[in-house]
Amino acid sequence: MLPRSHPLTGAADRVDRANEHLQALYAEARDFIKPETYRVVPMPYFRKAKDRTLTLREMRSRGIPLDGFGVRRLTRNRFAVRYLMYEDASCRFFWNTPPDERRWGIVVGEAIQNLRIALDYVACELTLETRRRLGKRAPKVRDDNIAFPILLTPHSTNGKTGKVTKGGEWKRVTRGQGAIAGVPRRVQAMLKKLQPFYRRKPPAAAEGHPLWLLRTLSNRDKHRAISVVSFAGEALQFKIRFLDPDAASKPPRIRDLWRREFGPLVDDTEVARLRFFHEVPFAQLAALGEVPMQVYHRFRVEVAFGEGTPVAGQLVLDVLNPVSHAVDSVIEAFKSVFR
């Protein structure tokens, strides 16, 4: 915890504000899933008709009307009953009140920008501290050029010739009117050790660095809102209850139950698939509402990055928590620079 008088307090406040955005977003996502906001519809997708012969006692014990649809008397005590044979069902998800994912994306973007701004605050305070110490001897750098550099490589490449200049990109930000040209070489060396490219071989490994992800997401958010989607979490649970009165004495044969543990929640998403065998008399279908089962379910909504980002499909907190910690580490690394 920095004292309020410390020059980096503003940067720390920005990180705190970013975390507040994320906490509020996830609290809203948890509260969003309520019984009235969605429905899950069981849809049997393989069925066929078959006649079965039942006695008068069996007809009465199963509650099948003697004059019901699909019932034909064979003898005084024997009836032909047409059954609908169910094999397998798909449970599909539908929103009644869709989440405002566009607004959620804006909230995520605000958190990202607060983290990026916190780094620029650090660069600015380091430059101002240098000016306070050196006075007129401090490098003359325009204030609007000051920024915290985040580089994937220290080298530069000529776009026309393809020629690579070793260390060219790092020289660009540390000399002349570069982003950190206004700080001492010792501080520049500290900044270099925090870069995504530092001691990472192969260079592609730097692309997963939290600060590089922050730069990528921040640049995208400046031009277009970050895309996020709602995801079903690990609390996705299903219980199947069959409505046929005969199911208690002759339960359906369940072969397998597949549940979608994780994935985007959009209309008509398959969230469960049940492989089973069950039969229902035609005469009882009207009372059962055609579908001979009820599905009990429970969801937990998470928020994940959508398409168009390098972290598509990953949970927002799983990505931004390490980014927030990385920014905290930058602030911690430079606390001692200030007297």
What attributes does this structure have?
339 residues; alpha+beta; six-stranded antiparallel beta sheet; three-stranded antiparallel beta sheet; 13 strands; 25% strand
Structure description:
- The chain has 339 residues and is α+β, with helices and mostly antiparallel strands.
- It is 35% helix and 25% strand.
- It has eight helices and 13 strands.
- The chain has helices at 9-32, 56-61, 101-134, 168-174, 185-193, 210-223, 282-288, 316-333, and strands at residues 38-44, 47-55, 71-73, 78-95, 156-157, 164-165, 228-232, 237-242, 253-259, 263-264, 269-281, 293-298, 301-305.
- Strands 1, 2, 3, 4, 9 and 11 form a six-stranded antiparallel beta sheet that branches. Strands 10-7-13 form a three-stranded antiparallel beta sheet. Strands 5-6 form a two-stranded antiparallel sheet.
- Strand 5 and strand 6 form a beta hairpin.
- The two termini are 16 Å apart.
Beta-strand percent range: 25-35%
On the 0 to 100 scale, the average pLDDT is 85
Overall SS class:
alpha+beta
Shape: elongated
Largest sheet: 6 strands, antiparallel
SSE blueprint and pairings:
Blueprint: H1 9-32, E1 38-44, E2 47-55, H2 56-61, E3 71-73, E4 78-95, H3 101-134, E5 156-157, E6 164-165, H4 168-174, H5 185-193, H6 210-223, E7 228-232, E8 237-242, E9 253-259, E10 263-264, E11 269-281, H7 282-288, E12 293-298, E13 301-305, H8 316-333
Antiparallel strand pairs: 1-4, 2-4, 3-4, 4-11, 5-6, 7-10, 7-13, 8-12, 9-11
Describe the structure in brief.
With 339 residues, the chain is an alpha+beta fold.
